[in-house]
Every structure is written in C-alpha cells, then in structure tokens.
Amino acid sequence: GLAIIVAVGVAVYVKINSVGRDDHPPEAAV
Questions:
Q1: What is the pLDDT of residues 7-21, one digit of tens each?
Q2: Which single residue of 2, 15, 16, 17 has CA 20 to 30 Å from 29?
C-alpha cells in the first residue's frame, strides 16, 4: 500500500542525503 511506498521513499531520501556527509550520522536527517 501507500505506507510501503512512503517508507521506501524516506529510506532512499535519507540514503541520498547521507552520501558525502560525515559530520553527522544518517539518523540526524530523519
């Protein structure tokens, strides 16, 4: 359902935004 699509979208968003950034853990972007 839609919830799965949203969950995947968030996971991809966090992954993309964590690339090349070592000043903070990926969890901080959530």
A1: 999 998 888 876 655
A2: 2
Check: pTM over 0.85? Answer yes or no: no
Q: Which helix (H) or strand (E) holds 30?
A: none
User: Could you give the CA distance from residue 29 to residue 7 in angstroms, rounded to a whole number?
Assistant: 15
**Contacts with 30 (C-beta within 8 Å, 6 or more apart), sequence order:** 10, 14
Place of tokens 């993309």: 16
Mean of per-residue pLDDT scores for the chain? 76
What is the chain's alpha carbon radius of gyration, rounded to the nearest angstrom? Answer: 11
Q: Supply the range of the domain harboring residue 3.
A: 1-30
